[in-house]
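hey m, so remember when u said the tokens were messed up on ur end? i reran from scratch. heres the input so u can diff it against urs
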Amino acid sequence: MDFVIFIASMAALIYGADFIIKESEKIALHFDIPHFVIGATLIAFGTSLPEMAASMMASYAGKTDMAVANVVGSVTFNITLVLGIVFLITKPIKQQRNLFAKDSAWVIVPVIIFFIMVQDGCIGRFDGILYLMLMASYLFFLFNDSKENLAGEIDESISKEKFAWTKTLLLLGVGFALTIGGANFVVQSGTNIAKLFDVSEWIIGLFLISLGTSLPELIVSVVAVKKGNLEMSIGNIIGSNVANFSMVLGGSSLIHPLNVDLVATKFDMFSMIVASVVLLFILANNLYNKAGGIFLLIVLAIFIQHGI
């Protein structure tokens, strides 16, 4: 039965992602907001809800290993798997936004703060408050930056449709419900399958749950790049990772302090750092192509091979 639920949940993810992209474009057109900002806020937060729910439930149950592993794994998968696939399938397009100059800090700063916080082996409630403040500063940065009004980002077919708040909010809600609900059922059914093999909580959180909760980012980003919105895809991942650190870890640590075993998890932490550095290299050199995708997938292969 778990295998049937897993397949049905994947279908829900795909259909939900299509609703999210289309209605988000309508909102971007209506308010004249750049696609990157839409991807980094509305879509990123919506697709980060599975990680938040999973980590908070794990924290509440006292399974802090699973809560932290979910974030570490999700950040790594978001960069290596999601952007790796996105860069492999994207077509050469002219970028309107200098991603390295404007957004590189948000790729690496949350990672640096994370490693500073875990040096004592615990992410406490005060750390959680600081992370929530980081989220507030990121939102302020995005909306202040959106005043630049980047041109040429809106899908022309969308611009011909009449905007209606009721319809847009309804379809957006349906999209998030299908995407998030599908991800949750993927995690639940996948976890039941994994338990048959007597896998540890850290490994379940690091690979199975984090991969499952990264599926919304994957599906949404692939659909976006297929529609020519590469910047929305990248914005989705950067925003999701900021949300994973600040809102997911921050919120979870407020429920229960999160213990971290730096010795046992050093390779997984190192993989996350390497993935972030490789993404910075790609942004700095505009490698939004197959070469960039291959770099990221190599990091992913090493991460998975060591974990298995």
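this time it looks ok to me. The domain at 36-149+201-307 is CATH 1.20.1420.30 (A middle domain of Talin 1). if urs says something different then somethings off w ur setup not the seq
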